Amino acid sequence: MTPDERAAAESWIAKRIRGRQSWMAHRTLERKVLLWLLRPLDDVFNYWAAPNVTRSVVTMLFLRECLKSGRTFWNWDEEQWMEFFARTNREFFDRHKRAIDCSVRIDLAAIAFLHGWFRDFQALGTTQRRPLANRVFGKEPVSAAIDQALEPLAQWGYSLSGSAVLRVVCDALLRNESPYLDDLTIERLRDFRNAQTMKETRRNYFPFSRVLFYLGILKSPLERGPHTVRRPDSSSGVPREWCEWVDRWSRTSTILTRKNYRKVLYKVGRWLAENHPEIVSPDQWTRQTAAEFVAEAVRMRVGDYTVARINPSQRGLSLAPSTIALIINTVRGFFSDCQQWDWIPRRFDPARSIVTPPSILGQLGPKPRVISDDIWARLLWAGLNVSVEDIPRSGRLPRMEAQ
Fold first, then answer.
1. Which of 194-203, 243-252, 350-359 is predicted with the least confidence, judged by mean pLDDT?
2. Coil, strand, or helix at residue 301?
3. pLDDT of 217-227, one tens digit each?
4. φ and ψ of 318, to 5 deg
5. CB atoms within 10 A of CB 35
6. From the CB of residue 229, how many other CB atoms can be counted at a distance below 10 Å?
7. pLDDT exceeds cutoff 50 at 176
8. What is the model's pLDDT at position 22?
9. SS3 label, residue 88
10. In sequence order, which residues have a C-beta less than 8 Å from that of residue 348 and are 6 or more positions away?
11. C-beta of residue 31 within 8 angstroms of C-beta of residue 74
């Protein structure tokens, strides 16, 4: 962006924040400088017949992000787009720090989709598919496709009260980049289902394929069997000797949650393979290794050292304090058992070397909040002035007399 464009954008945003958001006034002032930049947005606004409020809010968010990144939005890469959209609605609101409607995020995603700047809408988490499809294709063709799909399902006795089937239809239309069911093929439908990370949506692709087969669009429905994605081997990427130790401990331990413990211990094995490939068994651990692991557990993110399928909207988020404590407690119990059963020498004390840090312990349990003085005064007054008449009766029991 040139200095004049940056100055015009900053002036435009400042005027809107101060409440001077007359759309025609902006056309005659800052918009003259930003006309080439805002033309792609105007094309979409005119296609939607969007009201001035929507135009103003969406334009402001785009301009703020351009100022922050120093680049125009058609030069953003996928990482920049994901940072702009955020992975969840809560992150989006926190990032933009304004009381805006949930539909604004859908408007932004639809604009990027229509211009081909960003179409990985699945990375946006649980963003509603039908409003997004309505903005991309228009309400009439989307409604026609949904009605065409729901009619056979209703005849077959499927429950249409939920949004699962609607989500599948809109998901397929968006992925196929066409609002017409006739444009779908069995190959594309199979690819869409395999790429879907939400189990419920992936499962409902089968009845949707039956509808397309019934309508004569497909020559055959999808296979029912492989609709669930094969889970990868949980021990993948773990040193063989470490796996043998984990299996030995699992066969010996009597803990009921051994399956969950194995997942954590395999995670530790992948961490060792990446950072300490020379360590392949618990008898090679030292106090320094234990300290490094505790520090790494605190810094772990969702998706680190795992082979399980992770929702793109959750990948990279910080682990919950309870999850961090669970990982550390699991490893401490594993080493305590190995030492107690005389499998490995006692080079360090797990109860002292593998301990959940106080910073994590402080985030566990109840989270008390400060009660304002006025509310506390009312509670105190109610407690001092409560009478027998204020106590509700329960069933047919007589009202208790005050002592």
1. 194-203
2. strand
3. 888 888 875 44
4. -70, 145
5. 12
6. 14
7. yes
8. 47
9. coil
10. 285, 286, 287, 290
11. no
